[in-house]
Amino acid sequence: MTSAAIPATMAGVEEVEVVVAHRERATLRVGDVFLKIDADQELTDVEVEAMAMAPIPTPQVLWRKPPVLALAALPGKALGRLGEPSTASPAAWAAAGAAARVLHDAPLPPWPGRSVDELASHLDGECEWLVTNGVLPADVVARNRRIAEAALRPWTPVFTHGDLQITHVFVDGDEIAGVIDWSEAAQGDALFDLATLTLGHEEHLGDVLAGYGTDVDLDVIRGWWSWRSLTAARWLVEHGFDPASPGCEFDVLRSRM
């Protein structure tokens, strides 16, 4: 991109913050603008379309010049971080649950998500990798593999965010300011979103469910906690993240023992 192509909203900015960077994508903050650079433009296509369809607050799309997507910064702050205590109020957690319910009640996006068979096959492959490479003890993997089976059942598809981790949910006081990173949005299981939101923060599950407003199968939530932690480990390791950090994925898996 030439300097002439850079919008005036970015002129005069003195600092560029690297929010996240790995081999697949990078996100930079330039003033009040987030620049997402993604190697897979199909994921960006999904993100833009999903945000346009979502009935909950999302970042404003400022411009797109592939491979760059420019989004306006959201007010407030993230609901929390994995491995750290959340300072957000119970009301804010409940608001996140209520927002998830609004999303799940919305019309389905036109593209499908992964099938149960695909998810089960992915789980099998990642469990084999964890054991073969000695990343986790075999008994921890086997125990969580059994727990994950509760999630791998038929469900009625809803509009899911697909990666509703707490760093993607922004709150301003007790209100939802917006939800970011929609590239994995698809038709899917509502309880996967709720499990992703509360992964490593089980103490806030009650608040989330109070906002969500309906009973859920807690065994399925626990199953998705195990599934996500098992299947995320290799990607995290290969992209420079540490699932063994306190309170993160490996601690979630060990807590099931």
TrEMBL record:
GO terms, molecular function: transferase activity
Keywords carried by this UniProt record: Transferase
InterPro entries, alphabetized: AGP_Transferase (IPR051678), Aminoglycoside_PTrfase (IPR002575), Kinase-like_dom_sf (IPR011009)
SUPFAM superfamilies (UniProt xref): Protein kinase-like (PK-like) (SSF56112)
Pfam families, A to Z: APH (PF01636)
UniProt feature coiled coil, ranges: none
Positions of the Aminoglycoside phosphotransferase domain: 50-214
PANTHER family: AMINOGLYCOSIDE PHOSPHOTRANSFERASE DOMAIN-CONTAINING PROTEIN-RELATED, AMINOGLYCOSIDE PHOSPHOTRANSFERASE-RELATED-RELATED
Protein name: Aminoglycoside phosphotransferase
